[in-house]
Backbone:
């Protein structure tokens, strides 16, 4: 799962609540993940003070042990339509590439998933 | 208006998208569906906070779509030199694979051509002559029309 560049809602673990006491008002935080490494997720956390577009902001490390679960909106990547290899029936009109592409797009609604 | 479809798959957002969504008026926030409302409730997040997160994703997707249209126009310019039967049908962004896939109709069959983000970003952001040449080379080679490499402007 690629988390970079996605808004993730983290629920703090018991350890995270204790370690981050005073930093967050609620046990669940929404954050944009800048990157992840072996330490945890580096996040842009929304502060009460609004940051203007273009201004630099501070990244915060949320260690892996500091959250118990996370939720993000997820839509699976669409497979690129490819022409079938083999014979094609002459009597029945086959689906055009455009129709196939539209059908594939329609069949993948956005999903909410939970990573534990 | 673009003659081709731009499909954004696996969009990512930038800190600018995040900041813009944080400052967006409540009236601009998207409506949550039932599933999203349920997740917000279970995670003890306000619906407004959840909606701002959705808005970040929408900003990211729109930004990628505009970039795709720019890249697609460059591809169309190249195809214009090849001839009428070659037409860009769709441009698909595959975020996880870090590439765009251009689906081009040819006289024989549709062809999918993968363009890595590195080249695509160079073409979109700077469009220097050497970047456009690299794109042209990739497109023509993939279409089996290397014979046109030196002749197209």
Residues:
């Amino acid at each position: 799962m690629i988390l970079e560049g996605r808004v993730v809602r983290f629920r703090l673990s018991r350890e995270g609540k204790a370690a981050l006491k005073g930093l967050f008002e609620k046990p669940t935080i929404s954050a944009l993940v800048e990157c992840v490494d072996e330490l945890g997720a580096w996040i842009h956390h929304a502060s009460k003070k609004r940051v203007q577009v273009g201004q630099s902001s501070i990244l915060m490390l949320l260690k892996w042990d500091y959250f118990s679960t996370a939720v993000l909106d997820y839509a699976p990547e669409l497979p690129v339509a490819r022409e079938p290899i083999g014979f094609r029936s002459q009597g029945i009109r086959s689906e055009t590439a455009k129709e196939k592409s539209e059908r594939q797009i329609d069949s993948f609604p956005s999903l909410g998933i939970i990573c534990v | 208006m673009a003659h081709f479809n731009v499909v954004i798959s696996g969009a990512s957002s930038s800190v600018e998208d995040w900041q813009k969504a944080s400052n967006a008026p409540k009236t601009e926030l998207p409506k949550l569906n039932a599933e999203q409302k349920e997740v917000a409730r279970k995670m003890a997040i306000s619906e407004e906070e959840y909606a701002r997160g959705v808005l970040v994703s929408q900003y990211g997707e729109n930004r990628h779509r505009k970039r795709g249209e720019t890249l697609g126009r460059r591809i169309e310019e190249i195809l214009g030199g090849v001839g009428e039967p070659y037409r860009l049908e769709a441009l698909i962004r595959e975020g996880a694979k870090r590439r765009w896939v251009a689906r081009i109709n040819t006289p024989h069959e549709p062809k999918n051509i993968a363009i890595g983000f590195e080249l695509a970003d160079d073409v979109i952001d700077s469009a220097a002559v050497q970047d456009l040449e690299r794109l042209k080379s990739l497109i023509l080679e993939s279409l089996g029309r290397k014979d046109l490499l030196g002749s197209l402007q």
Observations:
- The radius of gyration of chain A is 21 Å.
- The helical segments of chain A are 14-19, 97-106.
- Residues 104-111 of chain A have pLDDT under 50 and may be disordered.
- Chain A touches chain B at residues 2, 4-7, 9, 11, 26-28, 30, 32, 34, 44, 46, 50-55, 57, 71, 73, 75, 77-78, 80-83, 97-98, 101, 105, 112, 114 (CB under 8 Å).
